[in-house]
Amino acid sequence: MKIAILVAVSENGIIGREGKLPWHMSADLRRFRRITMEHAILMGRKTWESIGRPLHGRTSIVISHNKDYDTGHSEVKVAGDLDEALAIARQADCDQDQAFVIGGAAIYELALPQADRLYFTRVLADVEGDVSFPEVNWSEWEVKEESHHTADEFDEYDHTFSVYQRV
């Protein structure tokens, strides 16, 4: 199973503020849904709590040091680490070609060395926040797709959607 990271990052590296996304970008949310549909999504406890519910059409797996963590939803699985989360994803009733890591910063940092793909939204602005994406060695990645989009009434900032493949 391949590991893909899906993230939106501002120019100054911010991915979150007070447990939420620090922007409103409908196009990015639609892209997230389209890309992750029918796949396993792996996330940390704080990301799970910010979402607060299982996402339709996806297998949600929460990574937590607390193996007794209760998500409040029987269909949401809990794993103690990334390897266990991937093992659960391999057994899940979903598309098993790749699992998507969707946050937060600590989980991204764990997954980055093993990731095969990055689905990266670059938010073309500096924003305030309290959670940053880990440093990426961009020499290890090659752009496979890229498209630029302008801010409008539904998307707060100009942004670029990119897909990177590990070289």
UniProtKB/TrEMBL annotation:
Belongs to the dihydrofolate reductase family. GO terms for molecular function: dihydrofolate reductase activity; NADP+ binding. It catalyses: (6S)-5,6,7,8-tetrahydrofolate + NADP(+) = 7,8-dihydrofolate + NADPH + H(+). Key enzyme in folate metabolism. Catalyzes an essential reaction for de novo glycine and purine synthesis, and for DNA precursor synthesis. It comes from the Bacteria. InterPro entries: DHFR (IPR012259), DHFR-like_dom_sf (IPR024072), DHFR_dom (IPR001796). Residues 2-166 form the DHFR domain. One of its GO terms (cellular component) is cytosol. Pfam families: DHFR_1. Its EC number is 1.5.1.3. GO terms for biological process: dihydrofolate metabolic process; folic acid metabolic process; one-carbon metabolic process; tetrahydrofolate biosynthetic process. Keywords: NADP, One-carbon metabolism, Oxidoreductase. This is Dihydrofolate reductase. It comes from Bythopirellula polymerisocia. It is an enzyme of class 1 (oxidoreductase). PROSITE patterns: DHFR_2 (PS51330). Pathway: Cofactor biosynthesis; tetrahydrofolate biosynthesis; 5,6,7,8-tetrahydrofolate from 7,8-dihydrofolate: step 1/1.
